[in-house]
Design a protein that fits this description.
This protein has about 110 residues and is an alpha+beta fold. It has one domain: Fe-S cluster assembly (FSCA) (GMP Synthetase, Chain A, domain 3). The protein contains three helices and three strands. It has helices at about 5-15, 60-70, 95-100, and strands spanning about 35-40, 45-50, 80-85. A three-stranded mixed sheet has the order 1-2-3, with helices on one face. InterPro entries: Fe-S_Maturation_MIP18, FSCA_dom_sf, MIP18-like.
Amino acid sequence: MDNETKLKIEEKIIDMLKTVYDPEIPVNVYDLGLIYKIDLQENGELTIDMTLTAPNCPAADFIMEDVRQKVESVEGVTAATVNLVFEPEWDKDMMTEEAKLELGFL
């Protein structure tokens, strides 16, 4: 896979991540700043490191499975692994400006 192809697939992955929502928050996981790493290998294997707004989030399993299923549906991704990490700890400064506006932080 060349660099241009890889970048196009990564853009599609980000677009797909923007369709995943925490059921309690009206902002997608990407704009919330919950995605820490997107690592796409040459063979199409994808690893995502993500966190949650709170370690005891009741929707954690649902959100992680939604992320995995959706990114695996992206053409060029052969398999996806989603790792839940809590370092660095998430805070509202990790959100995009759009997310902060949506949630009333601006």
